[in-house]
Amino acid sequence: xxxxxxxxxxxxxxxxxxxxxxxxxxxxxxxxxxxxxxxxxxxxxxxxxxxxxxxxxxxxxxxxxxxxxxxxxxxxxxxxxxxxxxxxxxxxxxxxxxxxxxxxxxxxxxxxxxxxxxxxxxxxxxxxxxxxxxxxxxxxxxxxxxxxxxxxxxxxxxxxxxxxxxxxxxxxxxxxxxxxxxxxxxxxxxxxxxxxxxxxxxxxxxxxxxxxxxxxx
Length: 217
Description:
By secondary structure, this protein is mainly alpha-helical. The chain has one domain. 69% of the residues lie in helices and 0% in strands. The protein is built from 10 helices and no strands. Helix 3 (44-61) packs across helix 6 and helix 3 packs across helix 8 (175-192).
């Protein structure tokens, strides 16, 4: 899945760099924006990395991610958050998009690699290589080396939490900011938790026929 997602993302970014939909003839404005939004979405890997690192910096060094007090920040952030979630509900016609939101953030290394490799290929002529997806099915559990960036981020979040609590106990940390960023860390860890099930997944396991027979009335 990760190989296939990488190949899709690389191809999409290549198209954007070579045939920017904003400058293509024959497209209406809504079409230009739709295609560009789809292509530009893979740059979100860099935003996700900042999203994970920001609370670490505050809890460890006490540096705020934005130059604003808590009230001003949340007066601007909460409406955006609420409206974006409402748009997800409208676009999905009421179906849950939570798992997709988890993967969109948790797969940030794939998105970053797709952008850097596509730029290297289109602008600097570096070979991209063709990622062949294995069709034989999973032979066992996924190696943890495939998700080492996410694991590194998760460990960093936990370490930052401990340091933040210690700073607060020593009277160094700012109480409200620490509480907000601790909640932020919990949310980040919930996002990354989707990888636990993914790594443990061993592919489709057919049900035991004997068990099924015994369960029939």
